[in-house]
Amino acid sequence: MHRISHRDFSCIQNILESIKKIQEYSGKFENADEFFENTISFDASMMNFIVIGEMAEKLSPTFLKETENKIDWFKVKGFRNIIAHNYLGIDAEEVWQIIQSGIKNLKLNLEKEII
Fold first, then answer.
1. Which of 46, 80, 98, 110 can bridge 102 by disulfide, Cβ–Cβ 3.0-4.6 Å?
2. What's the whole-model pTM score?
């Protein structure tokens, strides 16, 4: 583990809070179709994915470099861009898979960095 700046720590906390919200919003659904049909939960989750991407952009180059072997920051930021610029083309199944596995791994890796 390395020393984390106050700014990086704050960004990580915001990312973890957004992950928590996404998990809460999606947790009551059994599959991607149910989740997508509930527009309030789906839209709220998409907004939190945007927050995650925005916070990733604010992380220091040092932190990004030190964690790139555990976290694919390019994909994290890229997903934010997909949501922001191609919202109507979002694939609910892909989002569901990211929620089921991708953000869990992101959460675990970020928690290791701040503990």
1. 98
2. 0.91
Q: How far apart are CA 10 and CA 42, in angstroms?
A: 25
What's the CA gap between 28 and 47, in Å, rounded? 18
Query: DSSP assignment of 7-29, as one string?
Result: HHHHHHHHHHHHHHHHHHHHTT-
Place of tokens 């989740």: 35
Residues 115 and 22: their CA atoms lie apart, in Å, by: 22
Long-range contacts: 98-104, Cβ < 8 Å, 24+? 98/49, 99/22, 99/23, 99/26, 99/35, 99/45, 103/19, 103/22, 103/23, 103/52
Instruction: Name the amino acid, one letter, at 26.
Output: S
How many other β-carbons are positioned within 10 Å of the β-carbon of residue 45?
Answer: 25
| Cα torsion angle, 18, 19, 20, 26, sign | positive
The model's pLDDT over 36-56, given as tens digits with 9 standing for 90+, comes to 999 999 999 999 999 999 999
CB atoms within 10 A of CB 8: 22
